[in-house]
Amino acid sequence: MKPEVILRQSNIIGDRLELRPFRADDAELVAQHANDQRIAQMTTSIPFPLSLEAAEDFVARSVSADRLEDVWVIDGSKSDMAALLGVISLKYMDRDQSEVGYWVAPAFWNRGFASEAVTTLLAANPHANRSVVASVFQDNPASARVLSSTGFVWLGEAEAFSLSRAAHVPTWTYLKTL
3-state class of 161 per DSSP? Predict the structure, then answer.
């Protein structure tokens, strides 16, 4: 359930990174990084190929007052890294629960950025959740490891539609109580 008024997102500071709201100039980096089939196929909503116009629309929706989720850039600038390592989001649900989603650009894989972003976001708990859910495609064991290593518990199997694959794909569902 979406709150009636979504407040402005604040920046959330981690050890090596900062989670910050989108800026208009982030769209080019989103298009550059997310226009990678390895990223698109592991998400439900990124098309492949991803045009600059679609990335601009995503950034605009992410900062609109009537958005259904809060989306942050995973920004490594504070540690002299790239200004956009990836993206993390919390989608509003009901019963004090949100769904977390994330992707990290392939150039930054295997460096712990996804785990740090998830840990940082959940420690801040900007939606004041009692629990957070997540799901990953079963052919994405790296994301499953991120969830397990950050305290999520496996709930079971389901499936979700992947826009880039144009198919329903088996998923694993996880829960973390805060």
Answer: strand
The C-alpha atoms of residue 159 and residue 172 are separated, in whole angstroms, by: 8
How many residues would you count in the chain?
178
Q: What is the pLDDT of residues 102-133, one digit of tens each?
A: 999 999 999 999 999 999 999 999 999 999 99
Give all strands (DSSP E) within 2-137, no chain letters: 12-13, 18-21, 69-75, 86-92, 97-104, 131-137
This prediction's pTM: 0.95
CATH of the domain at 53: 3.40.630.30
Number of domains in the chain: 1
For residue 53, tell me if it sits in a domain: yes
SS3 at position 123: helix
Axis-axis angle for helices 141-149, 113-124 (nearest 10): 40
Alpha carbon distance 80, 77 (integer Å): 5
Rounded distance, CA 111 to CA 107, Å?
10
**Looking at the domain assignment, is residue 161 inside a domain?**
no
Domain contains 153: no
CB 39 within 8 A of CB 107: no
Domain of 122? 12-128
